[in-house]
Structure formats: structure tokens, C-alpha cells
Amino acid sequence: MRVEMFDIVTVGHVVIDVISSSSFKELKTAIGGPPTYASVAASNLGSKVSLVSNVGEDFPDSYLLWLKGW
Length: 70
Prior knowledge:
This protein has 70 residues and is of the alpha+beta class. The chain is built from two helices and four strands; from the N terminus they run βββαβα.
């Protein structure tokens, strides 16, 4: 069994943010939550990051693929 090591492991709830604004007609959604932003920031600074979260069945696969790309 191979154990992979990380510089940082973030644990928390990755969520779907719903955004409304007078500048657009329809509600917009985006990936959100503090562990998401912390993980992306740490990755951009050169750390090898792992993210631990539970997501619901309605969580879009496209968001999971985006996270895996970091």
C-alpha cells in the first residue's frame, strides 16, 4: 500500500454558493466554502494539498473535476 504525503490537508464543507445581483437576471452558482478557498490558495503558493469534505448528491461533477485539477 502506497501512502501519499501532503503539505496541507484542509477539512471542512465545500459548498455551492448561490449568487444574486441586480446586474444579472438569473441566479448564478459557484463552488465555495472556506476549505475550497484555503486549498486553492495553498496550491497556488506551491503546496501539495488534500481536501476532505462531504458533498451532497446534487454537487456537480464539474466542480469535483475542477477541484481535482488543483
